[in-house]
């Protein structure tokens, strides 16, 4: 078993009012962003730009992200509430919108900012996986799967469809279920392979418990998919189970069948 996970351009500054310093007006003062608050934001911006993101703690990252979306709000308390409720930066960004909306002061703008960060990170990781043969970028693949699935509250079964050069054609969620079960059907996996002209797949699902050890049902389902795929000349390269910050490979554990 192995482990994985980690996570410039110029835009119209009017789209990102919290990033750049500006005058503190009456509306800002009334909502809690007074001159002292703007000085705090400026110091955080300078620390980010000069020392890099590692110089910021999780609550500071959230605070800085939120004052881009909520330029008239004091976002320090909101950031600390997010960490209290969700326990980490990653869990806060990955939390369902319905739960984010329960955080006082966050609102739609703040929730959208958090989900945008998650989407941007996953899109960058998926692009890195898609531009090269998957089997030659295994570490990046497992990092992408871990980032995509480790915070899911219910089991999710997904399939990565590959072409004859083992390049990614599609990454699709085939089933989403309960905290300990996600429906998946061998015939549906094979049918979708034929539709996409895929010659190989990598299976993946998560364990919300955090532990990636396979169940008996996981092993049985995998063997059924391997057999059904082989009848159509389709290879199953691996089945990855994602836990919390760690993952398990069926191929490495000799469980593919």
What would your notes on this structure say?
The chain is an alpha+beta fold. Helices cover 46% and strands 14% of the residues. The protein has ten helices and six strands; from the N terminus they run βααααααααββαβαββ. The protein has helices at residues 26-30, 35-51, 58-69, 76-86, 89-94, 97-100, 107-130, 138-149, 186-196, 216-231, and strands at residues 2-3, 156-162, 168-176, 200-206, 235-242, 246-249. Strands 1-6-5-4-2-3 form a six-stranded mixed beta sheet, with helices on both faces. A hairpin with a 3-residue loop joins β5 and β6. The protein is elongated.
What is the string of helix and strand elements?
EHHHHHHHHEEHEHEE
* Structural class estimated from helices and strands: alpha+beta
Count of runs of 4 or more consecutive helical residues: 10
The level of helicity is: 40-55%
Distance between the first and last residues' Cα: 18 Å
Low-confidence stretches: 1-31
Q: How do the strands line up in the largest sheet?
A: 1-6-5-4-2-3
Would you report the number of β strands?
A: 6
Radius of gyration from the CA trace?
22 Å
């Amino acid at each position: 078993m192995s482990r994985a996970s980690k996570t410039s351009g110029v835009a119209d500054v009017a789209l990102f009012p919290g990033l750049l310093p500006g005058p503190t007006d009456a509306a800002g003062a009334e909502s809690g962003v007074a001159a002292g608050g703007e000085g705090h934001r400026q110091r955080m911006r300078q620390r980010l730009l000069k020392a890099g993101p590692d110089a910021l703690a999780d609550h500071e990252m959230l605070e800085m992200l939120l004052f881009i979306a909520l330029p008239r709000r004091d976002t320090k308390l909101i950031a600390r509430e997010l960490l209290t409720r969700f326990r980490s930066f990653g869990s806060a960004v990955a939390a369902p919108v319905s739960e984010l909306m329960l955080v006082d002061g966050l609102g739609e703008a703040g929730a959208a900012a958090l989900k945008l960060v998650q989407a941007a990170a996953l899109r960058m990781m998926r692009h890195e996986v898609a531009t090269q043969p998957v089997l030659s970028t295994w570490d990046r693949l497992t990092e992408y799967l871990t980032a995509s699935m480790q915070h899911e509250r219910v089991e999710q079964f997904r399939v990565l469809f590959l072409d004859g050069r083992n390049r990614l054609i599609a990454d699709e969620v085939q089933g989403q279920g309960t905290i300990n079960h996600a429906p998946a059907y061998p015939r549906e996996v094979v049918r979708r392979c034929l539709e996409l002209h895929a010659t190989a797949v990598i299976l993946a699902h998560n364990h919300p418990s955090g532990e990636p050890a396979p169940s008996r049902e996981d092993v049985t389902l995998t063997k059924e998919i391997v057999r059904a795929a082989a009848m159509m000349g389709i290879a199953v390269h691996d089945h990855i189970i994602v836990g919390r910050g760690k993952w398990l490979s069926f191929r490495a554990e000799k469980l593919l069948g």
